[in-house]
Structure formats: C-alpha cells, structure tokens
Amino acid sequence: MKEPFLSVVIPAYNEETNIRLGVLDKVFRYLDQQPYSWEVLVVNDGSSDQTGMLIKDFIRTNKGFQYIDNPHQGKAATVITGVLAAKGTYVLFSDLDQATPLKEVEKLLPWFEKGFDVVIGSRETKREGAPILRQFMARGFMFLRTLILGLQGISDTQCGFKAFRKGVAGAIFKRLELYGKMKTVTGSMVTAGFDIEVLFLAKTLGYKIKEVPVEWHYVETRRVNPITDSWQGLLDIFFIRINAWKGMYRI
Description:
This protein is an alpha/beta fold and 251 residues long. The protein is built from 9 helices and 7 strands, in the order E-H-H-E-H-E-H-E-H-E-H-E-H-H-E-H. Keywords: Transferase.
C-alpha cells in the first residue's frame, strides 16, 4: 500500500468532552476534502474516562483513522508512540482540542518544498484568550531556554502543532533522552521539556527548522500550577543542557 502524504498524530488523555463535542468529526471533514492521502493516529494515553471507547466507536465509521492504546505515560510518550508508528511522508502532531485548527497545516506544508526539515507552528503573534499569568510564564520560559540551550530564532517552542519529514521525525524521536524513556505516571502532567528537547535535538542534528505563525485559541485543559510547573520546566532545561554536555545527543 502506498504511504500517505500526511500523518496526523493526536494524543488523547481524558478527552471525552471534546470528542463528544465533535472534534474528531471536524478533523475528518477537513482531511476528507484534501487532494492528498492521509492517516490519523489517535493515541489514547491510558485515559480513565470514556475516551478510548469513543475513539473506537468513531473510527469504526470513519476511514483513515487508527487507534493506539498506550498505558498512561504522559503526552510526550503518547506523541512519540504515534510519530514512530506514522507512515506519512510528512508527520504532524496536533492537540485533540484543536486549539490550533488542523487547517493551519496548509501554512506549514509549503516550507518543506523550500528545504526545511521541521516546520513548527507559533502562537507568538497572538495568544488569543490566554491569561496574563500564562503569557508571563511563557515569556520567562522563552528567555531561559534561549539563554541555557541557545535556541535562538525560535520564539515559541511549546505550540502543540509541529510537522516533520518522516525520516527526520524518526531520527529525532528515537534519540530523545529526557523524554524518550517511557514510564507510567499518574494524573495529568506538564511536559514542557518535551518540545524543547525535540527542537534542541533537531538543531543539534543539523536539521533546518522553520517557525510559522498559526491561528491559536486558548483552551484550558488542566489546571496549571505556576510554581511547580515552572520549576519542572526549568529542571527540564537544565537536564537537557547536562545531557548535551555529556554528548548524549551526538550522532
């Protein structure tokens, strides 16, 4: 069977409400109108609600969707599972809540033809609806990751809308150190360092990265603790720096 042009990886953890509101239907309707072939891999992160059942019910009547059931390991492990299972020429991961609508992929795909290997969405131009505290945290996080990791030229590492050439995605996601080691977790969790490690590794491996402004709407999916979450994000940055000093990201 010919490989699809685009693979869309969607992690899902306790997304019963969004699924019942028809988010997956919107994804299908958009892709069904496109001239290229596609697949959608919905990866269930060990949800404790009806997420798994609802996804299975959906894919029974909607071709092109696949269901992957993971133990609860957090968003990073869930995305990694989906990306490594993807078969498309280009691989995009996108949040199920569609804070960035899937149609925004139209802004990313043309950059691959211009020689870029990784094309990421950016919310920096307008973070519609985001609380002031979240915006302040984002600015501080951006300063620290640039200072410590040297990720100059990337203003928004955290937008959950990133696309890769298939071979590039495999090379990056198989070499993750901080978030590449799968382990079970409890409850929801913030994995701020995951996106940073992905982009840091992409840069270390010499891949060309393009950041593109995309439409984004604030959706509160979990309660953020500005102290503990910021501290965890900072620790992740330092651990990535330490791993780099140890040569763990070298070819």
